[in-house]
Amino acid sequence: MAIEQDRWLAAVHVPVTEQHARVRAAALQAATQLSVASNTQATAQAEVGSTGARSEAVSDFDRLHVTLTPPATPHGPPMPQDLPAMPNDDDDVSDDEVVITDEPDDIFAPQYDDVEVAPPTVNLLPFKKITADFTDTALREAVERFEPPGVPPPAGALYRDSKSGFTRINVASSAMEALRGRKKVNEEIVYAGIASLVEEHAAHNANYALFQPYDYTMWTNQKQRARVFNSVQATSFWSKNVILVPIHDEEHWVLAIAYPKYSKIDFFDSLGLRTYHKEHAKNVAHLLSSLLQLARGRGFKDVWPAPIAWDSRPLVDMVAPFQRGAVDCGLWVLAIVAASIRGFRTTALREEDMPNFRLYLSCLIRKHIPPVIPRQ
Questions:
Q1: Which of 217, 197, 182, 216 is nearest to 335 (CA)?
Q2: Where are the domains of the chain?
Q3: How far apart are CA 247 and CA 175, in angstroms?
Q4: What is 3-85+94-373's CATH superfamily?
Q5: How crowded is residue 298: how many other Cβ atoms within 10 Å of its Cβ?
Q6: What span, in angstroms and rounded, lies between the C-alpha atoms of 185 and 334?
Q7: Among 44, 77, 332, 368, which residue is least crowded by beta carbons within 10 Å?
Q8: How confident is the prediction for the chain on average, in pLDDT?
Q9: How does strand 158-160 pair with strand 169-171?
């Protein structure tokens, strides 16, 4: 159901994007430094985020008259109520291949919460190829067969209210044009794509939790950490078998897939860079152990024990990266999200599938995120 333009304009002034989170984090940290400077020498520097999201002109909104035919996509096997035992992929790892990361800073500042969480140890394991049983081949076959509707999609913004654990979704027309135009996608497309993939493939699967891109951004700023729990609480992450954490690092998208029951983190970087793995795996482990401990302290039921040590393995070999271009990292993250919510650990999609995967995602987003109807 479409949303009226007046209601959309009233709704979207609330920051809902990763861009806004970066600006808020930088402003808050700058204010903290200013107050501390009169007493002590402030040493932390605020990470300057990008400017606020571009406002959408009224003239850009057009009424949608075409009903898209839902893309024919196969549904993966239903997820079991409990995950099967993770494959023992550590048997051939020698002690000298395991790297212990540096311990991060303490978690919550005292003024935010009285829960103290010791930073977990993170063992960075080398790449090991995922077996065919854990590779999503059906989606690749569907993407290869997919043909978009003959009528070009109309221009205009998309908007959806909070639903199914997702906050409000706002997608500017320029973001959709970038998706179809083979350009780099922003956080609006990534979050809308995740929500649409869930609706299409896993609407009744309650075994996973999906964080928003700016949840991780807030966590990296210590003064914002207390807000993260409130942001992710609707996902009931503490009882889920799989937790997915999309990460936007400057101009590059990566994804962490955590299995708290097994204290394991799969780390996906389409370029296979070790630097991203080392930095973000330890931050994600600290984030999740802290949130799990906080959930238990607040009395929630069915909370997984907070791991004191995690194993993290990259899903992409640095000598054989999935991504060969410079603009498809966000698309690759969405491909792994699709595989994860369908019960797999990696995707069979390849670089040559990305153009058609863009068309597929564009139709999927328009199918599940309603258009904004302009004022009459």
A1: 197
A2: 3-85+94-373
A3: 18
A4: Adenoviral Proteinase; Chain A (3.40.395.10)
A5: 13
A6: 11
A7: 77
A8: 77
A9: antiparallel
The amino acid sitting at 189 is: I
Give the list of residues 6+ apart from residue 283 with CB closer than 8 angstroms, or none: 104, 216, 219, 220
Phi, psi of 296 (to 5 degrees): -65, -40
Residue with tokens 């008259």: 65
E strand spans, the chain? 3-4, 99-100, 121-124, 135-136, 158-160, 169-171, 208-210, 242-249, 252-259, 264-268, 309-314, 346-347, 372-373
Q: What is the DSSP letter of 136?
A: E
pLDDT band at 358, cuts 50/70/90?
A: very high
Per-residue model confidence (pLDDT) at position 183:
92
In the chain the first and final C-alpha atoms are separated, in Å, by 17
Reading the block at residue 167, the tokens are 């906050």
- The total number of residues written for the chain in this structure: 376
Contacts 24+ apart (CB under 8 A), 291-297: 291/228, 291/229, 291/232, 291/237, 291/238, 292/237, 292/238, 292/260, 293/115, 293/117, 294/108, 294/113, 294/115, 294/117, 294/229, 295/229, 295/237, 295/238, 296/238, 297/115
In the 8-state DSSP scheme, what is residue 326? S
